[in-house]
Specification:
alpha/beta; 49% helix; globular; 6-stranded parallel β-sheet; 12% strand; 12 helices; 244 residues
Length: 244
């Protein structure tokens, strides 16, 4: 349907510079007819105290800042298998105190991944939450030790922004749109590099001055990329298009 949309459109809105460049490269669409408007993050995503999170974390039997979090549809693009492999490379002392919590509805070609998750769940190393209600997502983000989001391909990467806004360390892919969205806030790793992902998971637990800088910068970015900003920029583009 994309070629048909390009023929009809007076102007395009891309969610990232990466996506804009992909459109130009793959279709030859004129650059001056594409604007970039980043997705926004809900104001529900912000840093929270342990007391604020207690009731919801207790429901999931989780401890504050004591779990790695991966929330995404379970499908090949989201790279859950390599996250599982990376987690298993962590020292036993870390896995004993920091379970890997996976949430998200089943997606395409996910049966093998689910079998692995179930096997690791029986060993007490992985927790699979399945579909997580929208109201609980900000709580799980704010309570995590780190958010792991290393897909093979992403047009924007809203989960990375949600983690940053929550004041939570985030490990992101070094490909597609993620370096653009996370900047120098995220810990970057190649989605195909299992050992590299594991190393960044371990590094995210090191409470250093550099981590404090990353968290402060992430919260600031989240405040500047609320949905209201997205709406205002989109409206301005509509106004210009109608004025022609």
């Amino acid at each position: 349907e994309i070629p048909k949309a390009l023929e009809r459109a007076d102007h395009l809105i891309a969610v990232s510079e990466f996506t804009k460049c992909e459109i130009i490269e793959l279709t030859g669409y004129p650059e001056n007819k594409i604007s970039v408007v980043y997705n926004g993050v809900s104001s529900e995503y912000h840093p929270r105290t342990e007391a604020e999170l207690g009731q919801t974390l207790a429901k999931y039997q989780l401890n504050y800042r004591r779990y790695f979090l991966s929330l995404a549809t379970v499908e090949p693009r989201k790279n859950i298998d390599n996250i599982l492999d990376a987690y298993q490379k962590l020292p036993n002392s870390i896995r004993k105190h920091y379970p890997l919590v996976i949430g998200g509805a089943p997606g395409w070609k996910s049966q093998g991944t689910h079998e692995r998750i179930q096997s690791l769940s029986r060993k007490g190393q992985v927790r699979y939450l399945g579909y997580v209600p929208e109201k609980d997502l900000p709580i799980l983000y704010a309570g995590a030790s780190a958010k792991i989001f290393v897909p093979f391909y992403e047009g924007f990467g809203l989960p990375a922004l949600e983690a940053m806004a929550s004041g939570t360390p985030v490990i992101v892919s070094d490909t597609s749109s993620l370096p653009e969205v996370a900047g120098d806030v995220g810990y970057r790793a190649s989605p195909a590099d299992v050992a590299g992902i594991a190393a960044k998971m371990e590094l995210s637990l090191d409470r250093t001055r550099d981590l404090d800088r990353r968290l402060e910068a992430g919260v600031a970015i989240g405040k500047n990329l609320r949905w209201q900003h997205c709406v205002e920029r989109t409206a301005r583009i509509y106004q210009k298009a109608f004025a022609r």
